[in-house]
Amino acid sequence: MERELVGLAASGAAAVVQAVGTEAWADLRLRVTELFRGQYDHSQVAALAQTTGELFSGTAAAPTEVTALWRARFRDLLAHDPRAAVELRAILDELPARPDSGPNSPPESRPESRPESRPESRPVGPRPAAPLHNTISGGTQGSVVQAASIGSVTFHASPYHGALPDPQEWPGVEDVDPIALGVRPTHRTGGLPPLPPYVVRDRDDELNSAVTRARARGGLVLLLGEPFTGKSRSALEAMTEGLAGFRVFAPARGADLRGLPALLQGRPGRYAVWLDDLDGHLGEGGLEPRLLDRLAGLRVVVLATMRDDAYDEHRHAPHGRVLDLAHTVEPAREWSPAERARLARRAEPPGDPRLADAARSSGPEGAAAYLALGPLLWEEWWRARRADRHPRGHALVRAALDLARCGLTGPLPMDLLLKVHEGYADVDGMDREPVEDARAWATERRYGLLRFLVRVSDDTWRVAPFLVETATWHADLPAVDSQVWVCALESARADETYDFKAIATAAHEAFRLAAEAGDRHALQNLGILAESLGEWEDAERWFRRAAEAGLPRSAGRLGRMLAERGEGKAAEPFLEIAAEAGDAEAATLLAKLLRDRAQHWLTVGRTCGSAEASHLLGDLLLGSGDVDGAYVCYVDAVRVGYPQVAASFASVLLLYNDREEAEVWFRRAADAGEERAVEALGQHFSEGRSAVEAERELRANAEEGAMDATSLGVYLDLRGRPDEARTWYLKGYETGDAYGAFRLAELHKAKGERTQAQGWYRKAADMGHPGARRALGEGPETDAGTVTV
Predict the structure, then answer these.
(1) 565-598 burial by CB neighbour count: b if 16+ within 10 A, else e?
(2) Helix, strand, coil abundance in the chain, percent, nearest 5
(3) What's the pTM value of the predicted model, to 2 decimals?
(4) Which H helix or E strand runs over 220?
(5) Tens of pLDDT, residues 21-55
(6) What's the CA gap between 688 and 693, in Å, rounded?
(7) 769 near 742, Cβ under 8 Å?
(8) Residue from 590, 578, 519 nearest 553 by CA
(9) Could you tell me the domains of the chain?
């Protein structure tokens, strides 16, 4: 596979060079540069594509060198993004071959390079050399001006001093492109320049003074500091301000500089040499004291940058002695209050919004690092979504980012991030990455500066501000999913530090857009949101639409809303849909509605003289606790001679403690073969049943359920054994029986222990026991039918 991609890179490079000057070139140039969209070197590729068109304008550059540059770019692209191979192959398939030349033919051998042999119909005619705006390296290590100028790019094919470019081809200071000379780009967006305006640093006065002195007598000015402190940008700003009229040479890393003094001797004009990352220009053929002295004698300004660690590495080596001759300026990474104030003023409207982001969100890493690292880390995070990289880590960071986009910008529990990140169906391969590996990847420090997730305290985290800011610049980032909004609403409702109304308003808009796009669950979410805000008409409308779209949960919510306002019959079909889908609350409410309807019609039947209706109505009333109402109904059935009522009538008599008459009616029902009557006779009226047997049975049942444990306690209590009863009351309470707590309160009350009794009444009341509420003077609780999000 790797060999195939290498071959494809070579084919692509040859095709680009062959296509120069053909009718297909304009389209090819745009399509090829689009392949690099989002890559770190996109701007360099764009510059290379722009200037490759100058290959046949009579310059002295060798096409083989240009082909090598394109080949290196394509190989780097395919190594980072193998999927780009598909589009590159498509481009090659559509591109017509040039019949008159091959990719390595020298320009002087091509007909179009000689004006006298160029056909009249040739669309590309001789053009004057373009001014130099961008410089591109022959390798992958940054951007440099090199020998053999091609339009606006200068290439250097050899490290030997004999191949140094003609100083007249060096660009003027006013023409250099900071990005091409090593300044790291920040986010690009329509209508904004590649770089935001420069913000003056505290050490700029010292730097400008050093450059001014070097202008007068030559010498080396070195900006020294940590990575991502803005050294290159500051140096180039100082060059622009202090070296107006100079021409600039930016050699390739490792280029032989020994021929520079001879090349510049006797030349008119002033010259500067730009050495970004000076450690790449030390050693054999590089900058050393004698060469610097000869250049200074010609009043050449050498302007360089260097990292602290590289300085420490080379400072005491023989080839590092030239560092002793430099005027060194060291800008700090973290910006001072004065620098931040200047940044804030630069960011004020109508200033560059990227500076506003930096002013608002950069921390100890400094604004320069914030601006430069943002694009790099965004690309790392975005590419990590692929199955062979860190898909779970990507999803974990995306969860924090999406919640922040919803308005949850404070600390977020890791449990919440883990819950949300599992819902990203568009991220493949998460099962291949353990959660701990994902957490480690998401929280590690990049470039020694920034993390994707920042710990706030314990196990709470906040997404890095640069990701939140960067998200506003990227149209390819998916909209926040509806389920993430649901989680955000739940969290905002539970946390008073958030403005729930504001988040709800944003969620409503997100749900509305999703619903318009055909997401039926968004209809349901709109209903839940409106319901939580007390907007009942809107809630009903959204639930009805969601139910009609086939969502049982919405049908259940709509049914409950209708039932609560007295439209039980209208609610029943919606509750039935939800109940059949497993909604227990809907099923219960439907049963209650049907019971109420059944009671109404059984009452009508009883009024019309139906004994069966009287019997069934009595059972219904007895089940709901209306013993007296049930007794009246059963008496009506007895009076008309309806024998099926016998067992039910006996049950009421037993509740009234009329055991003798109850036994008669149970016996009648048992003789008729009714099993529950037989069981009642055995349980309540067996002559051989002893207290020992009763206690044994109660103890056996007490090990199985909370109510049975309390019942055993009552049995023992009534028989004068309160200490034993206490153990079973406590067991009943601990396993969920409010009556156990009530009985414990009664024990303490009997002993005159008022405080302890009140405490147990409170526990029983909190568990819903009506007797405990009455004891506390609170009365019965009403069922308000609350609805939560």
Answers:
(1) eeebeebbebbbbbbeeebeebbebbeebeeeee
(2) 60, 5, 35
(3) 0.58
(4) strand 219-225
(5) 676 776 777 778 777 765 545 666 766 776 676 55
(6) 10
(7) yes
(8) 578
(9) 2-116 (no CATH), 173-187+196-332 (3.40.50.300), 354-478 (no CATH), 609-684 (1.25.40.10), 693-776 (1.25.40.10)
